[in-house]
Input
Amino acid sequence: MWAEEVRTPLPGTGVAAFLGWVLLGAGIGAGLGLGIPGGLFVALALVLVGGLLVVRQGVRPAQVGVVTGLAALPLALAWLNRQGPGTVCAEGVTGASACVVQSNPWPYVLVGVALVAVGVALFRRLRRDPGPLVGPRS
Output
């Protein structure tokens, strides 16, 4: 086996690392936008964790998974508005009804799908081998 034929994976190019960054991005998006108690503090803590990982490891291709993870926020908003646009009323157990105005979910879906596509495309592009340093021999 020649030295040119040996391939070693580059650090930070694995799918598991990418999925880890996707989870980090989803946590940041959920903390910022879904109105959970203390969500802003959770999002800021996750941004700090991500920043520390980048400083410690350096920039890696898997880190673009954050972009894909941020798609969780618009997709969750699309799900919450799935019966919109318009006023949606629901009847409770006691017979009382509650009405809410929901927006059109399709813009949220489009933004979420675009974030997923951009994140996956960037990851696939960045994890490719740069190719041989020396051209083919004649």
Observations:
- The two ends are 19 Å apart (CA to CA).
- The chain is about 55% helix and 10% strand.
- The CA atoms of residues 20 and 65 lie 8 Å apart.
- Helices lie at 15-33, 39-57, 65-69, 72-80, 106-126.
